[in-house]
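stage 2 :: seqdesign
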């Protein structure tokens, strides 16, 4: 029986290009990658592989440093800032993940430290997080597909609408446009030309099903249903196991590629 796969390093052994880098060059490239990641995250943009390529252009274009720099930057982010860099799922129109669409920065701090940081967030951030939680919960309750008309009707009951500026949250059209661009929700058009929403890659990572359950329980001042919670945990464990098996297979493939390169 195969042991659970550990987190896969981007580079297991240094190739000739990486080994030839001076300490100064290596440090500069890693720091440039970290700055790029943080800049993208400040704008809530999903980091694409094309963005990473900008760090090594044009001098190191043929060096294939992308995976190496990504791994080094991920380690730096976790050790210095308490952040993690995780693959963002690509959300399909049919629902569910269909590969990856890039990377998203997530909080890697322990729960007790994370709560202390959240207590210091601004009122604007708290309002934004609440609106995101409400919209993602509504989509969740609609089996991850909510027609735009239905969403607007729900939000109208909260005195939020298109062209109506909420005194605290603002205009709903602006909010939805922002959430789509940031990856919290994904907007699609069905064959009947009607629009609908699914939970986007950032929403999946920052606001997973268990968090949505706790959020909705808090809104209604109720306890989380333990049966639902157990079902979610079983689903998450199954997905995690599947991901580990795929990662282990990818490790084997990479080993074969490395052997070919050495030849």
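stage 2 :: out
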């Amino acid at each position: 029986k195969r042991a659970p796969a550990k987190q896969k390093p981007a580079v297991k052994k240094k190739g000739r290009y990486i080994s030839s880098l001076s300490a100064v060059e290596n440090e500069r490239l890693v720091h440039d990658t970290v700055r790029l990641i943080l800049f993208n995250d400040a704008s809530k943009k999903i980091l694409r592989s094309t963005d990473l390529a900008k760090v090594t252009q044009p001098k190191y274009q043929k060096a294939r440093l992308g995976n190496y720099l990504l791994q080094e930057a991920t380690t730096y982010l976790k050790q210095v800032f308490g952040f993690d860099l995780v693959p963002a799922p690509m959300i399909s129109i049919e629902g569910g993940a269909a590969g990856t669409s890039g990377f998203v920065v997530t909080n890697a701090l322990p729960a007790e430290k994370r709560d202390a940081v959240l207590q210091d967030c601004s009122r604007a951030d708290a309002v934004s997080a609440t609106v995101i939680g409400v919209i993602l919960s509504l989509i969740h309750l609609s089996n991850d597909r909510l027609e735009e008309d239905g969403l607007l009707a729900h939000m109208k009951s909260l005195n939020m609408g298109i062209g109506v500026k909420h005194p605290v949250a603002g205009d709903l059209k602006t909010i939805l446009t922002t959430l789509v661009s940031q990856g919290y929700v994904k907007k699609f058009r069905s064959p009947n030309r009607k629009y609908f929403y699914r939970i986007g890659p950032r929403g999946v990572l920052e606001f997973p099903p268990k968090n949505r359950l706790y959020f909705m329980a808090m809104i209604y001042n109720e306890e989380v249903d333990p049966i639902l919670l157990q079902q979610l945990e079983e689903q998450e464990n199954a997905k995690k196991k599947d991901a580990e098996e795929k990662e282990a297979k990818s490790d084997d493939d990479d080993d074969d590629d490395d052997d070919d390169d050495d030849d």
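stage 3 :: structure notes
- Residues 46 and 104 are 6 Å apart (CA to CA).
- Residues 226-262 form the longest helix (37 residues).
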